[in-house]
Amino acid sequence: MKDNNNLFNNSLIDEYTFKKINKIINNLSNNQMIWLSGYLFNIIENNKLNNELKKSSILIDNKITILSSSQTGNARLVAKKLYDRMVLNNFNVVLLKASEYKFKKINKEKILIIVTSTYGEGEPPEETYVFYNFLMSKRVPKLNNLSFAIFGLGDSSYKFFNKSAKDFDYRLKELGAKRLIKRFDSDINYSKVANNWIKEVLNFFKNVTFNKSNLSIKNKSIKVDNYEKKYSKKNPLITNILCNQKITGRYSNKDIRHIEINLPNVNIFYEPGDILGIWYENDPSLIKKFILCFKLSNNDFVKIGNKNISLYEALLKYCEITVNTINIVKKYSYLSNNKYLLSINNDLLELKNFVKNTPLIDMFIIYKSKLLAQQLVSLCRPLSPRFYSISSSQKEYKNEIHITVKILKYRSKNFVHFGGASSYLGRRINENDKIKIFLQKNNNFKLPKDSNISIIMIAVGTGISPFRSFIQERENMKAKGKNWLFFGDQKFTEDFLYQIEWVNYFKNGLLNNINLAWSRDQKYKIYIQDKILENKNIFWKWINSGAYIYICGSITMSKSVEISILKIIQENGKMNKSDSVIFLNELKINHRYQKDVY
Ligand SMILES: Cc1cc2nc3c(=O)[nH]c(=O)nc-3n(C[C@H](O)[C@H](O)[C@H](O)COP(=O)(O)OP(=O)(O)OC[C@H]3O[C@@H](n4cnc5c(N)ncnc54)[C@H](O)[C@@H]3O)c2cc1C
Ligand SMILES: Cc1cc2nc3c(=O)[nH]c(=O)nc-3n(C[C@H](O)[C@H](O)[C@H](O)COP(=O)(O)O)c2cc1C
Questions:
Q1: How would you label 402-427 residue by residue, b for 16+ Cβ within 10 Å and e otherwise?
Q2: pLDDT tens, 429-465?
Q3: Tens of pLDDT, residues 91-123
Q4: Nearest CA to ligand 2 atom 18
Q5: Which atom of ligand 1 is nearest to the CA of 408?
Q6: What residues does FMN bind to (predicted)?
Q7: Nearest atom, ligand 1, residue 425 CA
């Protein structure tokens, strides 16, 4: 027994409980005890916060504002659900998108509830950028009269999990606002946590003192964007593949596929900029490695939800086996009792580094352990669909949806790895095979309503995809606005996606300007941000004549492009740095600068 008896004399704990605790502690390793102490500390902190909140009785005599800060609609759905429940309970509540929020009057606000997702490298969604920047700046007033609650939607496989929710939470507190209930952070399967949070919010408001004027106020009914129509994430359309064709050259470093999907006579209407959600199945050869590694059998039974299915089926359709996360490593360290994994368990930096460099199967092989079939499936995250920008216009292809998919391929010490969904789409399904899809509206990446307005499209790699849809749409609409494409990749002969189509658009005059950047066709690197700067005078002219700017592709590229554009605004617009940022923010507010990056 560990020598804890001397603690007992001063303890608040009776002898029976003390012995029970010691019995548990005796079976724990040092690392497990460290974890336990952190766990207990968290419980104490949360209890403290809840007690503080219970004590603070707030007289509600003003409206409650719910802000949804969303890129692809999840946060909007949660915010709308809360709004509906509050309306049902007769609260005076308004629901706004972050892009509609008059944030400069935030100091007039009394109660603000923010539901936000996180994007980029821990950034808020596009529509929230300007509000977020304002809130983080020195210009923002003290907010002592404000009370707030935050709900975060994120994905724990990203380095900055739920960062924008955390940022809002800390910053509002720092500015003097009062937290109504503690922040809830949710992971990819957010629904359950969201429902619990909504319950807590409602309970909180039911327990505060009301001013009568707040009750029985008629709320305007709000039409929320119908993100989940007939076919949805939960109820996808099952259709078939029409074509799956490699569109990069023989010597390209990348395998990129043009995939055409049948859209039979069903009510699915998509617009340029929208995204396709795809449910995929894992690679059978990887499943085999998992099963062999733990000496399990395909036919072992496991429980997923309330279904009993074979381990093979669970790993094929229900578990994410290509993505490692910090949570998985932590859980596996306890299950395996592996010394090394336990030693990095409390070191966030080490954990992040480990996850980045160690795919799941490598971790299982290097840090071998015994797992039961059920333990294995419970350890993996539930499989979630992947998203692809639609690369066709329905005006051109009424009964088809096209996507452009890069097969993710990388090497670790042990194996060559492929991305789960991209290798399913690119390598494992063929013409006529069935596929499960659903549409994800993307109102943050839309052509200007007025087709006389000119557009500048900036893309690298598969970022070209929505622009193929844009240009088809503009051709069909006989849009008078001009079109300019900046496209970049490694090599002209290997990586010019949809080359013939773009050349034809340029020849027939629909595409007015085209600038290409090939990073590996010469000794020194050339990127699209360089091409933008080379054309700064015309670029500035287009901006001044009202052009919309669209950026699609990698997050890193979008940052470099933004630096170039800010430079043009400063030099050609004769502005200092901070004025150029204000100018760009204005473009964002007016939807004239839209990004779709991943
Ligand atoms: C709005 C939106 C639009 C998109 N549009 C497109 C599109 O048009 N075309 C397109 O091709 N993609 C697009 N994507 C990306 C796409 O959704 C998938 O993320 C991509 O295909 C990879 O998914 P996967 O399932 O193949 O890989 P996963 O199975 O999810 O594998 C990814 C994981 O592999 C690991 N990993 C990756 N590289 C390494 C490495 N070098 N070392 C160690 N581990 C590594 C990481 O853990 C990473 O999380 C889009 C994404 C979004 C959000
Ligand atoms: C390209 C991309 C980047 C993301 N980056 C992060 C991130 O840095 N941190 C995080 O916690 N979640 C991240 N996520 C996960 C989203 O926040 C999560 O999927 C959320 O449910 C999306 O909600 P929305 O539809 O309201 O935008 C990212 C998702 C995508 C597609």
A1: bbbbbbbbeeeeeeebbbbbbbbbbe
A2: 999 999 999 999 898 899 999 999 999 999 999 999 9
A3: 889 999 999 999 999 999 999 999 999 998 899
A4: 154
A5: 26
A6: 70-75, 117-120
A7: 26
Say which CATH superfamily domain 237-280+385-440 falls into. Translation factors (2.40.30.10)
Q: Residue 113: CB within 6 Å of ligand 2?
A: no
pLDDT band, very low/low/confident/very high, at 49 (cuts 50, 70, 90): low
| pLDDT tops 70 at residue 217 | no
Taking residues 469-486, report their average pLDDT: 98
Domain range list for the chain: 64-214, 237-280+385-440, 284-382, 455-597
Q: What is the CATH number of domain 284-382?
A: 1.20.990.10
Helix (H) or strand (E) holding 241: strand 237-246
**Among protein residues, the one whose CA lies closest to atom 27 of ligand 2:** 71
29 a known binding residue?
no
Token pair, residue 25, equals 């502690």
Does CATH number 3.40.470.10 belong to domain 64-214? Answer: no
Same CATH fold assignment for domains 237-280+385-440 and 455-597: no
Give me ligand 1 centre to Cα 444, in Å.
20
d(CA 201, CA 111): 12
C-alpha to C-alpha distance for 476 and 488, rounded to whole angstroms: 26
DSSP string covering 286-336: HHHHHHHHTT--TT-EEEETTEEEEHHHIIIIIEE-S---HHHHHHHHHHH
The CATH number of the domain covering residues in 455-597: 3.40.50.80
Supply the Cα-derived Rg of the chain in whole angstroms: 27
How many A from CA of 408 to the centre of ligand 1?
6
Nearest 5°: phi and psi at 454? Answer: -80, 155
pLDDT at site 267: 84
Apex 161 CA angle, 192 and 347, nearest 5: 120
CA of 362 to the centre of ligand 1 (A): 19
222: left (phi over 0), alpha (psi -120 to 50) or beta: beta
Distance 355 CA to ligand 2 centre (A): 18
Non-local (6+) Cβ contacts of 431 within 8 A are 241, 242, 243, 244
pLDDT at 34: 75
Mind listing the pLDDT tens digit for each residue in 525-551? Answer: 999 999 999 999 999 999 999 999 999
Q: In angstroms, rounded to a whole number, what is the distance separating the alpha carbons of residues 313 and 318? A: 8
The pLDDT score that the predictor gives to residue 226 is 45
Distance between CA atoms of 390 and 468, rounded to whole angstroms? 9
Distance 419 CA to ligand 1 centre (A): 6
Model confidence over 224-263: pLDDT tens digits? 444 345 788 999 999 999 999 999 999 999 999 999 999 9
DSSP, res 124: P
Structural tokens at position 281:
């199945």
572-595 pLDDT, tens digit each? 999 999 999 999 999 998 999 999
Q: What is the pLDDT of residue 83?
A: 97
Closest residue by Cα to atom 47, ligand 1, is 323
How far, in Å, CA of 326 to CA of 324, rounded?
7
Per-residue tokens: 212:
């009568």
